[in-house]
Amino acid sequence: MYIATDHLTGGLTEYMFEYLFQERLKRIEGSCGLICMNVKRFSAINMLYGSETGDSVLKEIYHILKGKLQPDELISRVYSDCFFVLVGAQDKDALEARICELDDAVYYHTGFDIFDHIFFSIGAYLIPDTGTSYRQAADFANYSRAACPDLSDENTCYEIYGYTIQDTRVCSAKMLKRGHAALENGHFEIYLQPKYELVQETIAGAEALIRWNDPEEGLIPLPQFMPAFEESGFIRQIDYFVFEAVLQLLERRLENGQPVVPISLNLSKAHFTNQMFFEDRLLPIFQKYHVPAELIEFELSESLIMSDEKPIRKLLELSQAQGFSCSLDDFGSGYSCLNTLKTLPITTLKLDQKMFTEEDKERGKIIIAGTLAVARQLGIQVVSEGVETREYVDFLKAHDGGLVQGYYFSRPVPVQAFEALLDK
Ligand code: C2E
Ligand code: MG
Ligand code: MG
Fold it and tell me: In what order do the strands lie in the sheet with 74-79?
């Protein structure tokens, strides 16, 4: 038995959408495009706000999108958080304009506060003729969506079949190839950004950050290579390289009797595809050096924590049993969930630079002070990241704000410059 109406939205089911598809292709004048829109990280919305709110959000999205359609155009929620829309579009530019219109309609919708956190990954297909079947068009739209370069969770991304896919794929494949060669040829290095304590305002720690220093081009901006590295998993090699560089630096300074501070490094979510990566990969690197575990901290980003909790909990437990610290990075940048602090045994909280902007500053300060108090009571250390002004330094000082890492004190600097700061 086929059901004609989607119980949640009251709109067409996929079956009905398919049924009406061919007929509408003929009725819409000129060409058509099929757009496939998937809500990014919808499971996080369900998890944070409950599935009832999740359902209302889907219903609302459906009605917002439907409100933007012309009389002969079609929409269906084909499954869970995935919407298909058939629109009239003469060419690629017109289809792109419709995609942006639909995405904007949701983003600028006022109703639920969550709407400005809703982003889509979108694939679209410009239908060449009225003989195209729904299945063919859906496959192309889906394929484009899956290939869409997903640069951030905080943005909608889209891809139109046949127009941009090849370009970005070739581009990231090239970047990856260059990355492998650069790692072999020693073109990567670490920079260190000091963290300052607020009593004497001296260096009490640092974060290691990867830099690609090409002999011809100079420093290559992170956003140019990070997405390709993350997507392919090559970032794991980079993280091991950073870990090793940090251990070498600390070991050398300890042997020379020079002062050291704890150094943190970022762990990409790509590691978590291997359940044993801590035992198999990280620990053996660490064991090659004579460095106390207390000097090492692993940073896990907030967006990573929002995914499956089990492997993260395992990493936290294993690494803390060895004496490493673990921080929750970028807290306050996206779907911060206070419950994470309750359930995950992190040692340090890194407040994201978004919390230290000039916008809505007074309201922001209330939130910062509150978060500091919560962390203090839980015995969690706090590092404020991206602090650029004296005003925020003084504010943090007055609120017992832990450590500060930001341009106000220092940008990330090459190892030699960092050591000079440390020896001062
Ligand atoms: P993150 O881990 O949150 O690192 C902090 C970023 O904020 C760094 O950018 C740093 O330069 C920047 N920053 C620090 N203070 C300020 C400030 O006062 N103002 C402003 N505007 N920015 C500030 P960077 O080095 O470009 O790194 C960006 C992100 O890339 C990092 O964010 C981290 O997520 C990732 N990343 C960097 N190096 C590595 C690495 O070795 N491995 C992995 N997995 N990810 C890395
Ligand atoms: Mg970090
Ligand atoms: Mg951060």
Answer: 74-79, 82-88, 32-39, 120-127, 157-160
Note whether 384 and 409 are within 8 A (CB): no
pLDDT tens sequence across 373-424: 999 999 999 999 999 999 999 999 999 999 999 999 999 999 999 999 999 8
186 token code pair: 């020693």
Q: Do residues 263 and 192 touch, judged by C-beta distance below 8 A?
A: yes
Task: Determine whether 122 is exposed, middle or buried from the number of CB atoms within 10 Å of its CB (0-12, 13-18, 19+).
Answer: buried
Residue 163 has pLDDT above 90, yes or no: no
Query: Which pair of structure tokens corresponds to residue 347?
Result: 């040692």
Q: CA–CA separation, 211 vs 245, rounded Å?
A: 12
The pocket around ligand 1, CB under 6 angstroms, is made up of: 193, 209-210, 222, 226, 235, 238-239, 242, 266, 268, 299, 301, 329-330, 353, 385-388, 405-407, 412
Alpha-carbon distance 212 to 225, whole Å?
9
What number of helices (H) and strands (E) belong to the chain?
A: 16, 15
